[in-house]
């Protein structure tokens, strides 16, 4: 969190709010948001789709009319691709030259023609809210209440466990 706040202080300062024009300069902030989407996306599966015709996918025959769900959790937590998927590491989305590295395997809104229509709006508003909150507050957990489980409950959406957070205004 401190690294992100230092980046926000350096690029945006504290006189104005972050804007979408700042995004290319807020590489660590963008990488952190992307890692949040990968690490704990809001839904483990996409909405159901249906195969319109018989097809083959990686050697498997899929009949027309078959209901198809994309397993986002499996894509985002694949150790064969990510190496250490259970580790929260925003740096995985930063190139050696310091630029942001987009990864096509981060698909919290689905993929292709059937992905979420509101994806660009959701990414934009999430970035603006997230960066503004980090600019103005330092967040911490209540030390009196240990957090023992951060996995949450898996269902149609991922429900985080209850925990208490303190938001301290940055001066």
From TrEMBL:
Determine if Ubl conjugation is one of this entry's keywords: no
Cellular component GO terms, alphabetically? cytoplasm
Q: A Pfam family for this UniProt protein?
A: p450
Q: Which InterPro entries match?
A: Cyt_P450 (IPR001128), Cyt_P450_CS (IPR017972), Cyt_P450_E_grp-I (IPR002401), Cyt_P450_sf (IPR036396), Cytochrome_P450_fam2 (IPR050182)
Q: What name goes with this protein?
A: Cytochrome P450
Q: Which GO terms describe its biological process?
A: organic acid metabolic process; xenobiotic metabolic process
Keyword Oxidoreductase: yes or no?
A: yes
Residue positions annotated to bind heme are: 116
Q: Which UniProt keywords apply?
A: Heme, Iron, Metal-binding, Monooxygenase, Oxidoreductase
Q: What cofactor does this chain's UniProt record say it requires?
A: heme
The organism's taxonomic lineage, starting at the top:
Eukaryota, Metazoa, Ecdysozoa, Arthropoda, Crustacea
Q: Per its record, what are the GO molecular function terms?
A: heme binding; iron ion binding; oxidoreductase activity, acting on paired donors, with incorporation or reduction of molecular oxygen, reduced flavin or flavoprotein as one donor, and incorporation of one atom of oxygen; steroid hydroxylase activity
């Amino acid at each position: 969190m401190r690294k992100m706040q230092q980046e926000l202080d350096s690029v945006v300062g504290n006189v104005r709010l972050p804007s979408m024009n700042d995004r290319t300069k807020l590489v660590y902030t963008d990488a952190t948001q992307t890692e949040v989407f990968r690490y704990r996306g809001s839904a483990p599966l996409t909405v159901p789709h249906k195969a319109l015709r018989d097809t083959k996918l990686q050697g498997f025959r899929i009949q027309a009319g078959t209901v198809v769900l994309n397993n986002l959790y499996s894509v985002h937590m694949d150790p064969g691709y990510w190496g250490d998927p259970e580790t929260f590491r925003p740096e995985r989305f930063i190139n050696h030259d310091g630029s942001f590295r987009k990864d096509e395997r981060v698909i919290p809104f689905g993929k292709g023609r059937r992905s979420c229509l509101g994806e660009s709006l959701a990414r934009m508003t999430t970035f603006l809210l997230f960066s503004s909150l980090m600019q103005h507050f330092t967040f911490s957990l209540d030390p009196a209440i240990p957090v023992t489980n951060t996995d949450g409950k898996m269902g149609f959406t991922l429900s985080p466990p209850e925990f208490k957070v303190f938001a301290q205004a940055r001066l």
